[in-house]
Amino acid sequence: MQYKTELHAHTSEVSTCADFTAPEVAERYIAAGYTTLVLTNHFTSKIIKPMGADWERKIDYFVAPYRHMKEYAKGRLNVLLGCELFLDESAEEYLRLGRNEYLLYGPVEEFLRANPDLQQRKLKELLPLAHEWGVLVIQAHPFRSGTQIVNPDRVDGYEVFNAHPKQDARNHQALAWARLHGKIMTSGSDFHHPYSPEAGGILTDAPVTDSVQLTDLLRSGNYTLLCGGPAAERDGMSDMPATQK
Prior knowledge:
The protein has 245 residues and is of the alpha/beta class. It has 10 helices and 12 strands. It has one domain: TIM Barrel. α1 (22-31) packs parallel to α3.
């Protein structure tokens, strides 16, 4: 038996671009046969600003949908906390850097709480800081229009398949780039909307139940990348083994 894990999904309580609440997303993924979901809501200055100046309050707000989903699922779905981070420098230098976003995996809550104003850091600071906490940094949809591919030494890996049906992530280019540089490869549905298919993630021989297991697994490359839905048809991709670093 093999187990499906979603690595890129959003809920409306934090990601205002999303249409479903945490319980609704949980039900979608349970019905789709996933055993684990990593909730990667957007983390931006704009999103957390309404929570005021207190950093702990900002993080409490960010993690609330994760806690709600975990409680709601009651063991029917393993729920882990991730993050899709947007650095302020990308907003300040949009024409040069593009709208770059980074998926964080590992002990994300602890990492966020320990690093106030993380979104104000420079990209060159992010990776060494994340590694101090055992957190992996993966560039999301690195070849989507408006995004600038970053140097391989600035990230642990790349999202090589993004299943968003209305955003051309140029997944085949991301796959070739990650393979060329021997980086960690991930797949995610980028789930937001009623038309979003549960078509990405990874397939493993054992269920993913905690963040340390997840990061160890991603480093190992011992999993299958799930590539389905309209984006896979558009890019001529299908499920494939992940290449080890």
